[in-house]
Every structure is written in C-alpha cells, then in structure tokens.
Amino acid sequence: MELGSVRALKAEVEERVVRPFVAEALASGRIGMAARSLSTATRRQPGIALGVTRGRGKGDFRLAIRVQRPALIGPELVGRIAEMARGEHDLRVIGRVRKRAAAPKPWHQSRQRPLLLGSSIGHVDVTAGTLGAVAWHRRTDQAVVLSNNHVLANEDRGEAGDPILQPGAADGGRRPGAVIGRLLAAVPLRRNGGNRVDAAIGELDERIRFDALTLTGLGALDGVRAEPLLPGDRVAKVGRTTGLTRGRVSAVEVDGVVVGFETGDLSFDGQIEVEGVGGPFSAGGDSGSLVVDSDLRACGLLFAGSDRGGSGGLGLTFLNEIAPVLRGLGLSLDLAPAMA
C-alpha cells in the first residue's frame, strides 16, 4: 500500500470506527472511569493507537494497530479496523505505555540512618560497595563496619583514618555529611597468591546509629554458621546494586581463582562459588555483601563475580568463607546486635 493510501486509511478508520465506538461506549457506560477520563483528554478511544509501518518491501506500507487494552481485541473494534485494512495491517498488543522517567533510587543506594546492612558504602576514593555487617572488634571493644578491602581500603592504597562514606561516592556520598567513620584495618592483599579473604573494617563515628540485625526482605541475622557450606546449599544476600537475591552453592574449596583488581590480578584459594536462582546473584557494587544460609546465619563475604559460567547463561559469584574473615580481623558477629 502506498504511504498516502495508508494515511488516508488511518484517517478513515479514526472517523468511521474509532470515534463512533468511543461515543457509544461513553454513552452506554461501557468505558470505566479511568478510561473515560483518558477518552476526554485524547478525544479518542483509550487503549488503541493507529500509525503507519513498513510493509513487505520498499515503498510498501501498512496500517499499524497498537492495542493497549487486550479487551479491545474483538470484531467490534479491532476486527472492523482489520477488515477495512484488507490485511494490510500490523496488529500488536503492547500493553500499558509509561514514560521513561528515571526509576527512584533503591534504598540500598541511598543514605541510611541508622545504617542498614546491604547499603552503599565506600572509602572516600572508591566508587561504592556494600556494607556487609556491623561487627564487634575485640581489640578496640567497639562496633565496626565490615566490607571488602577493595571497598573500604581501596586495595591497600588507603591509610588508617581515611574517611568512609555512606552512601558511597558513586551514589552521591560526599564529605563531610556522608562520613560515618574511618578506615581501621584491612587484611593485606598478597600479590604473590594465596589470598583467602578480601576484607576490611571501618571504625564508626560514635554519633552514627546502626541496625546490626536486619537483613531487609529476609529477616534478622542469626549469628554465624558453624559448619562449612556444601554444594547445593541455598544462600541469600542483600547488596548495594541488586538488593535481595538468592543463590545456590555450586562449588566449594575453590583454589586458584584469579580476580582482576585495579592494582592487578590476584589469586584466591578456598573460595565458595555461588550461582543465582531466578536471576544473577550479584553485580558490580555488591562487593562486601554478607551472605547468609537458609537459617540466616552468616556464611560468606561476597567479593567477586564472573560474566559467564552459571546456569541459564548467568555469571558466578565468589565468596570468602566467613570464619577466616572474622578471625583475620578479630571480629565477632554474635555480639553486634547488643550494640544496636
């Protein structure tokens, strides 16, 4: 069909079919209140749009029929339009159309006071990672925030006393208002291999309140898992980027995992591998998330992930075992709730 013919058909359909249908439907009350107000605004049937689309070849065009309300598919309206088009149409059910406004920032990328597990955090020179836990530091006898070395200590480039921001810089955290504490300690990253953890802690400002128990969407943290994870065990986490996700342990005791850092490739041993259930388990920015088992006991600290290798084409996530993390930094999670 020529372009001019389609344009004429579109105008004819509007005049002979759509407008009479709207008038009759409004008069009879067949269009509900929400649709009625839309009809008043557009002066035409709400839920059906007409346009011009490509046909079978160059210079060939068809009538585009876009249905937003499936109930309109039937002989009374869409059927009549298709009949008038004599097969020269492209019918698609497109559903509700919404403006492409930016989605509201999720809570885990926003400022949180009191601090919440799973929210955005980072060293002043780092984009953002995840606040994994609020733990009790035995040496200083105080509450500290736990995350990765590459989140809180900038891959060993940070110095004790450097500001820690919540939210992290990538999420709008700026000094001085976002400063919640200072870098206290980190487990050094070994350049010659044999790493087991990527972990660091920050000393909290005494004015900062926190909730050391709540894992939003999951429940209350219930201490530390005593027995090692095994393949097939179910786990979950709340992180800065993907929020609440669930996964399945796909391998344990994984040695020789080479992870790319800004300062170079580092090798890790004794790691836990997790694949997502119902979607990816993690994405960039989830580093530092505390991973819990099905009983909400802490079992791992998330630090890295791959783009491929998981079921359904999803990537894999790697965790440090929680025991060497706590041992290496002199921490206890069981006492953290007492400080909340």
Architecture blueprint of SSEs:
Layout: H1 3-28, H2 33-42, E1 48-54, E2 61-67, H3 75-85, E3 89-93, E4 115-116, E5 120-123, E6 129-130, E7 133-137, E8 142-147, H4 149-152, E9 163-165, E10 179-186, E11 200-204, E12 210-211, E13 214-215, E14 219-220, E15 234-239, E16 243-254, E17 257-261, E18 264-268, E19 271-276, E20 290-293, E21 298-309, E22 315-321, H5 322-329, E23 331-332
Parallel strand pairs: 2-3, 4-12
Antiparallel strand pairs: 1-2, 5-6, 5-9, 7-8, 7-23, 8-11, 9-10, 10-11, 13-14, 15-16, 15-20, 16-19, 17-18, 19-22, 20-21, 21-22
What report would you give on this structure?
The structure is a single chain. This protein folds into 3 domains: 3-93, no CATH class; 107-213, Thrombin, subunit H (Beta Barrel); 218-332, Thrombin, subunit H, CATH 2.40.10. Helix content is 17%, strand content 35%. It is built from 5 helices and 23 strands. It has helices at residues 3-28, 33-42, 75-85, 149-152, 322-329; strands at 48-54, 61-67, 89-93, 115-116, 120-123, 129-130, 133-137, 142-147, 163-165, 179-186, 200-204, 210-211, 214-215, 219-220, 234-239, 243-254, 257-261, 264-268, 271-276, 290-293, 298-309, 315-321, 331-332. The longest helix is centred in the N-terminal third of the chain and has 26 residues, at 3-28. The protein is elongated, with a radius of gyration of 28 Å.
